[in-house]
Every structure is written in C-alpha cells, then in structure tokens.
Amino acid sequence: MDFKRYGLRKEEYEAAVSALGREPNECELRILAVMWSEHCSYKSTKHLLRHFPSTGEKVVLGPGENAGIVDLGDNLGAAFKAESHNHPSAVAPYQGAATGVGGIIRDILALGARPVASMDGLFFGSPDHPVTASLSSGIVAGVGGYGNAVGVPTVGGKTVYDECYNENPLLNAFCIGLVPLDEIVSSKTARPGQLVVLLGSKTGRDGIAGAAFASVLLSDDSKANKPSIQIGDPFAEKLLIEACLELQSKKLIVSMQDMGAAGITSSSSEVAAKSGVGMILHFDRVPLRAADMEPWEIALSESQERMLLIVDPLHLGEVQAVAEKWELDCAVIGETNEEDSYTILWHGTEVASFPAALLGDGCPPRRWPSKKPEDLEKNWHFDMDSLPLPKDWNAALLALLETPSLAPKEWIYRQYDSMVQTNTVTGPGHPLSVLRIRGRDSLLALVLDADPWKCALDPHRGGAETVARTIRTLSVAGADVLGLTDCLNFPSPEVPEQYWALEECIRGMAECCEALNCPVVSGNVSLYNETPSGAICPTPVVGTVGLIPSLEVYLPSGRWKEGDRLFLAGPCNSSLGGSQYLLSLGHRQAERPLMFSPEGEADFAERARKTARMKGASSGRALAGGGLAVALAKDGAESSRGARIALPVPTRHDVVLFGEGGPRALYSVPVGKVPLFRTIWKGYPLLEIGRVEGDTLTVEGAFSLPIGELTSRWRVR
To answer: Are 683 and 600 in contact (CB under 8 A)?
Structure first.
C-alpha cells in the first residue's frame, strides 16, 4: 500500500495496521492521514503542552474540550479560546480569515455559550513587500465582514508587521462567550442508543483535507495543490447560533461539537472517544451540495456553519422543529452504541471502521531532534558603545511611533463593529478590551499580545515575557487574572534549532503561568509556518482574561489630568534586546531580553491591582512596545495634555526611554493621592519623573513635541 501518497509516515502506517489488525483501505487511509496530521493530532507537541498548568481555583473546564471555561461567580462562566487559520488566509485572504472567525465562534457555541466578543492576532509581512497590501487588506476585510454580519463584536487584538511574515501571514482568532455553569454542554456525555444529528449547512467539497494542508510548508507547490478553501456564510452562522442556544435552553441535546478541521470525522469520533461509546454513521444520509461526493470526501469536508448534535430519540421531533424554525437543514446521520468502534456506512456497505479512540489518540508521537542554535548567544553580546544616541530625539520618537507595528491601526478596526451587543466599555486601540456583563457590576477584561522578536532572540525569556505582558496590562487596569488561551505559531519542527525554540518558548510561558497563577485553559498549535524564502519568528500569541470588580475601580490609560504627578513604577534597567527601537534601527538580532523575575512580577501585579482598587491614580499603562517613551506619547496624545519630565538616572537615556521588558508601568497620580500611591508602592522601585502640564510633551535632555503635532503625526495611519 502506497501510504506515503496520502501523507502518512511509515511508523504511522504500521501503527494503523497494528490497531486495525489488517491493512487499511483507501478511505481509511485518507481519513487517518488528515486526523493524524499535525494540525489535528498535535503529535509533535502533546508532550510539551503538559508543561502548562491547566487547573486553578477559577478553572471550570481546561484543555480537552472545545474551549476552556473560567468561573465568573454566581453560576456564570466565560468560555474562550484562540485558533489559527494561517495557511488558508495566506492563499485566500478574505475567506481564510472569515472562516477562521466563524470556526472559533462555533468552538465557543459548542459549549453552550453565547459568543460575546472576538479579538484577532494579525501578523503581516513588510509593508513594502509586493503582496503584503493585498494579503493584509483581504484578511482584515474577512475578519470584519464575518464578525460584523454574525453580530459578535471585534473588540481588540494585536497587529504586527515584520519581514518574517512575507507571504506567510498569520491569522489568529479569539472568541469569548458566557454560559451558566449548570448549562454547559460537553463532548463527553453521549450514551449508547442516542442519535447523531447534523445541523446547519449542506456538505460540499470545500476545505477537504484542509487540516493536512495546514500541516505542511507553505510552498508554491502546496498553494497550487491547496484544497478548495472554505466559504463562510455569517448569516447562516447567526441562525445556527440561535438554534443551538435554543436547543440547549430547552435541554434537547446531550452533546454538541463544531465541525472544524476534518469535519464530520473529527467532531463525531471525538464525541465517541471521549464519551466511551461506539458510533455508526450513514454517509448517504448527509445533506450534500454535490451529488457525486465520495465517502472520504464527506468524511473530511470542512464546509462551514455545521454542528454535530447528540440527541435522545425522544427529543428528535422537537429538535427538528427548532431547526425548521431557524430554516436550517437537520438530518439524522447515525447512532451511538455500546461497541468500541467507529464505523462509516455508504448505502449500507461498510467503507471505514476504526476503534473509537484510534483517530484522535492513536497517532504515534513525534519527538524531533532539538538543538540550540550555535549563534544564539553571540547575538546577546551587543556593544552598546557602538550605538550612538539620537542626534534628533524628536525625529527618533516620531519615527518609532510611525513604525508599522506601533502605529495606530484605525484602518483596521474602523472596518470592525466593536459595539454590537452594546457591552463594549473599552474597544480597539487600547492596551486591553473591557466588556460589561449584563446584570452585574463586574467587567470582563481581555488582552491579546505577542512579542516574536524577543522569542527569536531568547525563546525562554521571550515566552515568559509574552505571558507576563498580558498579566501586567490586566493588573494595572485592576483585573484579577482568571486564565489564558494560547496560539503557538511556529515554523517546521523538523529543523532541530526550530524545535528547540518551540520547546524553550513553551517552557518560558509555563514558568510565567505557574509563578503568576494563570492557568492555560485552552489553545492551539500551528506549525510549518514557513515558505521557501524563510521561516516566521517563534510567535506564541496569548489571550488572557481577567475580571474587574466594577467600573468604579477600572483604571484606564490615557486619562492624564492637569497637575497630575507622573510616576514610573518599576526598575529603570530595562533592555533594548528585541525592542521596537533597535528593530527600527535595523538591529534585528541584538542584545538579550530581560530575565523573567517571578517575585518581581507577582509583587508588581499585586501592587498594580491595589492601586486601581484604592483609586490611587488617574491613569495607568503597563510599559510594552516602545518602552517609556511610547507610553508617554500615547498617554499624552490620548489625554490631549502635555507634561514636563526629568529622568534623574545615570543610565543612558535611550535605554530608559526605549527599553522594554520587566514589570513596569507609567502612572498619572493626582497630587492629593500621591501619599497613598507612594504607600502602595513602598518597597518597590518607584521614580517620580514629572508632572502633567501645558500642551507640550518634554523630556529634559531628549525630546520636546507639541501634543497637537504628536497626535497628528501619530494618528495619520
């Protein structure tokens, strides 16, 4: 049997033969090849993901379900997850991005949660690359077009430009929903004698083998042989959302699964394996868009807007009535039994049969060779004496603010409806997004972030820094951290240096999560993100969720008031390693990011939350890309106020102003609150650096810019 033509490795084929006790037929081989692809099986990363802490006081559901759920109190949970749709977005930007949004919404829906907000992680190539404009405009239009029509607000995200993403953009979609804890739907609750029901759109050839396509390098050949990209229909998804939530509220379904990667096969076999039941599927009963589809095509179609339901026979009539009300196709395509088998029939003839757990858990794991890059440490030894101070500080700051990754992204989020559902308190363009929870004082706080440049320089430190940045932002706003989801975007694991970077990033992230009590409740791995011209930087994307007790204690950024004192909370000895400043000067691989400090981060987070809860400041912003200088510029522009600042420190001004990393924040404090503020931060590095006054932002010995000019120059993009 020529198993290689289907994408299986020799050891995988042998494992299948051993499990089946015979040679698999062609249909079975095609199914196994997709289900055992990297995208579906996580065969290269399962053992690494065990490093992540996944339990905690607020964790209701951790990894293993469609999404994670954290407890918001009083019987309400927040379900959230991030998912990649990178390769499809590279070859069909609009539909790739749109169906990425639709898929993550259905992951949340599958738990019985109503989707309330989305965010996106967008990683584009250099603006001057010939295809970046078309790829980025198509992806942004796809995110907006789907999210706006389906009625789920896009409230924030992260956008990065870098040459490593040339022709290989990344689209990471995040969604969060709310669900009563006593109404959660699980994939583990099917029992023998129940019906397998397909609800939603008809099945076509779109997306067949899409999961396998996402598990290979993005070469010209792969683009030419790409599967038919999924076509999204947000209006059908809206109907599907309402129908599924009605079915759940009436307790008419036993279990529910989204049909994402690998379609019917993935969703149905997962329910069978997790519930410990057998399943028989009749593919001739599946509503089709193309009459001549073969069984393997039906098995692996990734047609959108479909859900798999497990239904008690007594409730079938009521389920069909709800489907008819919402004008959705509804077909019984199978049944569960007490056997340990997963069988596909075609007009009564068996075309495929597996042990129930084989498809999801039977793939042999892959542990690739791992090797630390030989030139890694050489990059850390950067001669700062060779870096001249700016001759024109004003020009240096403006140039930094106008770099594509730091510049405002109005052109993107103006295409998004961030206010639909009317729960958005703080939307796109801010360090975090904040949502009302209907009927409650508490607010949901969301942050999506990434720092691929630090991860490229030192994967362990960069991974920890990526997680820490999200937690700092939430803490400064006054939020208790509940948990996070991640999207691990990396190049091929078959290159030893690249696999080492993957291992180290995960270890760094896990170390930070453990130290700061931030469990990882869901996530996604996307490998093979590279083209013949190069690999992406290690790009773990982190979406962290917190809870702010009330609007009264929420501390926003950009709210300076005349006469406020400005404080830098945190050490001045930051690093230019992986900073936006060095990148803007052409130093991509120079100096080392700061080491993660568990004690310092925990101390900072506690004091930051206390500052917000005790109303000790007018405004707060955790330092991130561009360091203190960019934080001052953003806060000044958003407040429409100037400030006079002195930096009484011996360190080079460029390091203090542009350095990044470590637990640090810029605070604006009313004069009357200064004693309280100092008491809160006593024992932690704290420096009063100036006061809010006038209409010019001045740092003595560095830049001086009128706020009007700063705002106009910054906001042009």
So the answer is: no
